[in-house]
Write a structure and sequence with these properties.
Helix content: over 70%
Oligomer: single chain
Number of helices: 9
Number of domains: 1
Number of strands: 0
Distance between the termini: 19 Å
Protein name: Lysine exporter protein (LYSE/YGGA)
Radius of gyration: 18 Å
Order of helices and strands: HHHHHHHHH
Keywords: Cell membrane, Membrane, Transmembrane, Transmembrane helix
Pfam family, one: LysE
Structural class: mainly alpha
Largest sheet: none
Subcellular location: Cell membrane
Strand content: under 5%
GO cellular component, one term: plasma membrane
Length: 211
């Protein structure tokens, strides 16, 4: 088996919880869906997923070559990635419920399907934080002792993209109802941010010290 099933299970659970939190991608899809309808929301999600394929491919190719050339660097890289996940968790808790502006209906300009896809693609592709996240997140669930690093990265990347597409695609399709729910439940959004932040902090600490 080219991938650790324990790490894969942990990755699936962590990714699912992280994707369910109202982050920038979800709020972008939500806004597009509310202005352009379900089709626009789904196409915006497709654009984001396309960008994620590029991010994951670049990160996996670069990291695989780097770890193969300098095997001892994996431990240091994993510790650095764990620290970054802790940082993201702290930031999520500190800025919980701070995305109110993204739910505003002030911009009611209709969005075509083509515009939705291109905006989703470019917004995610040109966001350096997404590259940093991919580089820090994926290696936490890779076990170099099993070999097959490209396969491990490919499996994790595929799982990440599928889960994000399912979650954000559902948000885009149901944008009107979800937007109304989030707009009137700030306390619930804060609790989601706190829970997600705590998850990332715990994950970063655990994976940094576990192996």
């Amino acid at each position: 088996m080219p991938i650790d099933l324990h790490l894969l299970t942990l990755f699936v659970l962590t990714t699912a919880v992280a994707c369910l939190a109202p982050g920038p991608d979800m709020l972008f899809v939500l806004g597009v869906g509310m202005r352009g309808g379900p089709r626009a929301g789904l196409l915006a999600t497709t654009g984001i997923a396309t960008s994620e394929v590029i991010h994951v491919t670049v990160a996996a190719a670069g990291l695989t070559a780097f770890f193969a050339a300098v095997p001892v660097a994996f431990t240091a890289f994993r510790l650095g990635g764990g620290a970054y996940l802790v940082y993201l968790g702290v930031q999520a808790i500190r800025h919980r419920g701070a995305e109110d502006g993204a739910l505003s209906a002030g911009d009611a300009t209709p969005v075509s399907g083509r515009q939705a896809y291109l905006r989703g693609l470019l917004t995610n592709l040109l966001n350096p934080k997404m590259v940093t996240f991919s580089v820090a997140f994926l290696p936490q669930f890779v076990d170099p002792r099993l070999g097959w690093l490209p396969v491990q990265f490919a499996v994790l990347g595929a799982v990440l993209i599928v889960i994000e597409f399912l979650v954000d695609g559902t948000v885009g399709m149901l944008a009107g109802r979800i937007g109304g729910w989030l707009a009137h439940r700030r306390a619930a959004r804060r609790r989601i941010d706190v829970a997600t932040g705590g998850l990332f902090i715990g994950l970063g600490v655990r994976l940094a010290v576990e192996r």
